Amino acid sequence: MKHRFLTVAAALLTLLTGIGTCAARTGDFPIRAFHLDFRTEVMTLDAMKSLVDRISERGINTLVMEWEAAFPFDKHATLSNSSAFTREEVISFVDYCSGRGVEVIPLQNCFGHCEYILRHERYRALREDPKDPSQVCPLKIAEATACFSGLFAEVASLHPSKYFHIGADETYLLGLCGNCRAVADREGKSRLFVDYVKAMCDIVHRLGKTPVIWADIILKYPEALDELPDEAFREREVLAMQDIKSLIAVPLLSRDKVWGYAGIDIVNEPRRWSGEDYQWFASLMNIISLCIELQRSEREAQSERTYLEGLYRHMPLGYARLQMLRGEDGAPSDFRILDSNYAADKISGSRRERYIGKRASELGLDMRFYMPIFSQVLDGGDYVEHDYYDEQSKHWIHSILYTTHEDEV
Questions:
Q1: Distance (Å, whole) CA 60 – CA 251
Q2: pTM above 0.70, yes or no
Q3: What three-state secondary structure class fits 134?
């Protein structure tokens, strides 16, 4: 049977198609997800809602929710720990997210990272290694299907999303037990991975959902791509076209919003990315984001300055900025004209090129008329309105004088 098959690899590779790094506006990505994992620590419901408020404001529209033992299982109640939420709380949280424009995709591990399941005696027989509760044996498909059909159904019933994440990452024990080792030697580890994942995807399809998996194992064993359903042809084409074996991608943030992504593709041979690799790359991308943000802020500031300059240059009201010059006694004795607009030219009857940068005394202006008014503005710190008749332009002029900087009017 043909089914749609969605992988996180597909999402990342779509962003990175054709280039080693990619940057785009937030709106270019229909799914912008945040992963919340309750494996080691559980948040309160109020804290979860507060987190959703913050990420939704930053452009995130999807929450991949890994409840682990904090989910209120019913038929598998032994898996729920003392920090588990009630069904009503889960429904309330999912509804709250929906109201904030955030879709909740549940993540229920069924292959690797199953410690909280396999540590219980009831599920012990599913282990790949009897001494290690972290991973399910991929050859125990019938037993795993019986177990995870119930688990998936319980989790899916409280999440209306059409997607259901089954994990399937970091399955480092592939081929460990004797039976699995024989299959791996004969057909490769990818056979173990694909057969088991396809069985888990069938459970999801029967629930009317689209399965989602992490991409690391697919990228580690690229030969497994040929085993994916026909609907995954785009993912196979992208990987094959660029010979990509591994990749890492991190978000680019600006003003607390995701505006794009940057990534590194590794071709020809697979690479296992370490936490150190991620920290190094994320730090580098943060520096680049800061540089881009500074450049963008400078462009915006310049644009704002140009706009304001054009506004005051062409407004119909006359404007002039004057610098007060003080004498030896500290009192204002002269002033220099620093700037003006075109309307001031019309009012004064003189072109600004003639008087900008000049002192009033150089222009022959009556200092006894101007200085008392300017002193009043500077000393009082408030605006002063003044009417006078200008003999040169033959106009009555109503002036409003104020100061915004020391010794400027």
A1: 11
A2: no
A3: strand
CB–CB of 221/192 below 8 Å? no
**Beta carbons of 135 and 127 less than 8 angstroms apart:** yes
User: For the chain, how big is the Rg over CA atoms in Å?
Assistant: 35
What DSSP character marks residue 76?
Answer: T
What type of residue is 257? K
Can you read off the two tokens belonging to residue 346? Answer: 């019309």
- Each as own residue / partner, the long-range contacts of residues 225-230 (CB below 8 Å, 24 or more positions apart, any chain) are 227/190, 227/191, 227/194, 227/195, 227/198, 228/5, 228/194, 229/2, 229/3, 229/4, 229/5, 229/198, 230/2
CA torsion angle for 388, 377, 359, 352 (degrees, to 10)? Answer: -60
What letter does residue 60 receive in the DSSP assignment?
Answer: -
* Residue 265 to residue 242: CA distance in whole angstroms: 9
Instruction: Kindly give the confidence (pLDDT) of every residue in the chain, 409 residues in length, as a single tens digit, with 9 standing for 90 and above.
Output: 333 333 333 333 333 333 233 333 444 578 889 999 998 889 999 999 999 999 999 889 999 999 999 999 999 999 999 999 999 999 999 999 999 999 999 999 999 999 999 999 999 999 999 999 999 999 999 999 999 999 999 999 999 999 999 999 888 888 999 999 999 899 888 889 989 999 999 999 999 999 998 877 877 776 666 666 555 555 566 666 667 767 777 777 666 666 666 777 777 777 767 767 777 877 787 777 777 777 777 777 777 777 666 665 666 677 777 787 877 787 777 878 777 777 777 766 677 777 777 887 787 777 677 777 777 777 776 777 777 777 666 777 777 777 777 777 6
Tokens matching residue 60:
């995130």
Environment class of 188 (CB within 10 Å of its CB; exposed 0-12, middle 13-18, buried 19+): middle
**Cβ 407 vs Cβ 374: under 8 Å:** no
8 Å CB contact between 242 and 226: no
Are the C-beta atoms of 291 and 23 separated by less than 8 Å? no
Length of the chain measured in residues: 409
Specify the pairing of strand 395-401 against strand 384-390: antiparallel
Q: Which two tokens stand for residue 108?
A: 């229920």
- Tell me how crowded residue 294 is: count the other CB atoms within 10 A of its CB: 10
Task: Please give the DSSP secondary-structure letter assigned to residue 355.
Answer: H
